[in-house]
Structures are given as structure tokens and as C-alpha cells.
Amino acid sequence: MFRGRTTHSLDPKGRLSIPARFRDVLKTKYSGMLVVTSVPSCLAAYPIEEWKLLEEGFSRYTFAPPEVISFQRYFLAGGIECPVDSQGRVLIPVHMRQEAGLGKEVVLSGMLTYFEIWNKESLDEELKKGRENFDQYSRLVAGEATAFRK
Predict the structure, then answer these.
(1) Which residues contact 116 (CB under 8 A, 6 or more apart)?
(2) What residue ranges do the domains of the chain occupy?
(3) Cα angle vertex 7, ends 117, 119, to 5°?
(4) Confidence (pLDDT) at 27
(5) Comparing C-alpha atoms, which of 15, 18, 36 is closest to residue 27?
(6) 43-73, pLDDT tens digit by residue?
(7) CATH classification code of 5-120
(8) What does the pLDDT read at residue 58?
């Protein structure tokens, strides 16, 4: 599982050194290939095996509602395979760096089966919202967890 947050730098070519603890997960549990896609405010990096599970979930739609198609167009169609090189780096395409507003300093945030790549200032704003709304969000999460247990 991908856990924790860590700050890293993009090199001038747009390569990101994956933290050792994330690389270990990629090597021991997965093949090492990532699919990177855009989500609002950041990028999401999925091991290809997790990405294929997402694709399988969407493939069940024969005639999807327009909202699902729109989501697929943004999220799934935006996914790009990004191999991790022998030095543990992944090249983030220019257009994705621009869309996520990534500069030299980025933060990787573990999200269990994938990790996010954030512009540091944007993540700070998002974390502030999370702190301010923690009680409300925790009740929502607790309700969701209860619904899944039934």
C-alpha cells in the first residue's frame, strides 16, 4: 500500500524520483509500470495492475450514461503509461505537469492503491480544507464505511 506524504523535486527534464518506500511497493506487489492521469488539482499514478481493475469496472457499461462517458473521457482517456526507469524515476509528460501546475517541488501523497502528485501549494490548500472540515468528512466516511459493511 502507498502511505504517507513526501516532498520531492522534478528534475529539469520532468523526471520524478519515486520515494524508496513507494518503489518497494511497486517492486514487491506490482510490475513497476505506472499509469499517470489527471484528476482535479493533481495527478494520480496507478500501478498498471490497479489501472486495469479500473478499466474492467468501466468496461461493464454497454451504453453508459453521459456523466460516465464524460468521466471516462477525462480520467481514463487521459491515462498515460509511464515506466519507472532503473534509477526509480518516472517521466511526467509536459502537458500533465502544466495541467497540474507542477513546478520543481512536488509532494507525493500515498492513497493506498495509488499515489497523487501535487504542486506543494495546492496540496497545502487542500489539506487546510480537510482540517477545517474534518468532522463533517469523518462523519461522511463513517457512514460510507457502515454502508459497505451491510
Answers:
(1) 39, 42, 43, 44, 45, 108, 109
(2) 5-120
(3) 45
(4) 92
(5) 18
(6) 999 999 999 999 998 888 788 889 989 999 9
(7) 3.40.1550.20
(8) 86
